[in-house]
């Protein structure tokens, strides 16, 4: 099998890239190890930066998002049982965020890709890459039927997430350096059939640990609370979950609305960057090259930005035989990635209580929370980073 750009992974980076290449007249094939149903049912984050919303709209994938997503003009930071509003719209030049779940984004992109003749091979598992430093790289893969095949391409886009095979094709130590940090915390996430408790997201600092009140629709709410990363979902009955959430977010007249919990999961908090993001004709995008702790919801948005930069660079290669944007890919993408890393770390350390933190750290956090909710300059810094950098 042969194509111009072989894409490993039908996540946000792979699907966006494939469609942006299509709009430039460039052919691609996506290999995805999971089934379409599994991808479309996996619960992830749900906050789209202004730039991601604009990109989805521009490429013709924004219709349902515009109809069903929720535009938020601000969010709340809550500490010592009181909420303080960060007015995104006002502080970030009219820019806002949109709450629209990642799997809805994926559903829209898959549908659009298939409707425009895109090739996505579901349940096709990439086994490894060959000859990525030649001009004829190959992806070895196993088809849904179990046959061993090869996809021969001009370029390989590694969009296969943190645990994919693509990053491994960049030799660690000699060419590739990994930057890694773990946090002694996880997020326990739930989906509940309940009315919204607030019309904006609430990021809560509490001595018992962080909590986040988010939403999905008028009838479904998304909530998270900081937990031990090694904890098990089975340890948390519905009653225990509600008691913990109430303990962290109640007070000052605010009362969380309960409902039937129909989904529970635990995600670890970690920061990771692999440099460079390119090796020969292999380009990494999204979680294959970097992951962020969820605080601030940067993961999907960084993946979308990588895809945008890469599509433009590959586009310039095919339209003008220009290689300068391809050569600049790592540097261009990493500027945003490290800003996202910093902001995700910043929000994480500001809002979580870590087991090794003492009384000093608590007082320091409260002083900083006071600062970011009372100084327009400090709140502007948060707002600008939260809505995201414009896509250049
Ligand atoms: C959600 C996830 C996040 O990581 C975040 O910072 C805000 C919202 C969400 O899933 O709704």
From TrEMBL:
Q: Name one Pfam family in it.
A: FAD_binding_3
Which residues lie in coiled coils?
A: none
Residue span, FAD-binding domain: 2-339
Which UniProt keywords are given for this protein, alphabetically ordered?
FAD, Flavoprotein
Q: What InterPro entries does the database record attribute to this sequence? A: FAD-bd (IPR002938), FAD/NAD-bd_sf (IPR036188), RIFMO-like (IPR050641)
Which PANTHER family does the entry mention? P-HYDROXYBENZOATE HYDROXYLASE, TRK SYSTEM POTASSIUM UPTAKE PROTEIN
NCBIfam families, sorted: PRK08243.1 (NF006091)
Q: What is this protein called?
A: 4-hydroxybenzoate 3-monooxygenase
Say which species the protein is native to: Benzoatithermus flavus
Taxon lineage:
Bacteria, Pseudomonadati, Pseudomonadota, Alphaproteobacteria, Geminicoccales
